[in-house]
Amino acid sequence: MKAKYTVSPLTISTSLYLLKCIIGIIICYILYKEVPAYPFYWSMVSVVITISPDNSNKLAYDRIIANMLGCGVALCLYPIHVSSMIILCAGVAITIIAGTLLRITAVLRSALAALVIVIVTEESHREWLVALERVGCVVVGCTVALGLTLLFNVILKIFNKRFQKEESLTEVMDTGGE
User: Left (φ > 0), alpha (ψ -120 to 50) or beta: where does 81 sit?
Assistant: First the structure.
């Protein structure tokens, strides 16, 4: 006997998350190809780390704060000329402690990713410009992610209002206007 209903693993929420990630990657990839002087491949990493599967504006803001925390810690540690491993370990510790104090522990992975993006460079290219370019690219990725999250939330709100109106109309028609 065949099942009457099937449940698709690809829910509307998952489909929207997929669409946001793809659009974010496309936008950042265009920047990567059109402005080759800057490392916009980090924007692609940042956009997929920042976009959330749920449609929470708060989570999007928290992830951006976390990214800025990671970038800030990295910029503070960047001029210290010791082993990259020591800088990374110190950066991870500072980022986790600061994130805990800021009560953004749920999004610390974003902060740690931003920290690594900014800190890790070849020892021969340890220049401020490299770090600042990477911070800029992380910020671009975060901005794209936030823009997509806000846009999709507006679209969902409009869609939900329209769907609720149509559902109310259908109920009225089914009950004969009673």
Answer: beta
The pLDDT of residue 178: 54
Q: Encoding tokens for residue 20? A: 């946001």
Residue 26 · residue 118 · CB < 8 Å:
no
Q: How far apart are CA 14 and CA 94, in angstroms?
A: 34
Task: Give pTM, 2 decimals.
Answer: 0.77
Instruction: Work out the mean pLDDT of the chain and round it to a whole number.
Output: 85
pLDDT at 171 over 80: no
What is the rounded average pLDDT of the residues 73-89? 90
Alpha-carbon distance of 98 to 29, in angstroms, equals 32
Other CB atoms closer than 10 Å to residue 144's CB: what's the count? 24
Residue written as token pair 């000329």:
81
Q: Is the dihedral of CA 75, 80, 83, 89 positive or negative?
A: negative
Q: Are 60 and 148 in contact (CB under 8 A)?
A: no
Of 160, 156, 161, give the one whose Cα is nearest residue 19.
156
Please tell me the distance from the alpha carbon of residue 147 to that of residue 145, in angstroms, as a whole number: 5
What distance in Å separates the CA atoms of residue 16 and residue 162, rounded to the nearest whole number? 18
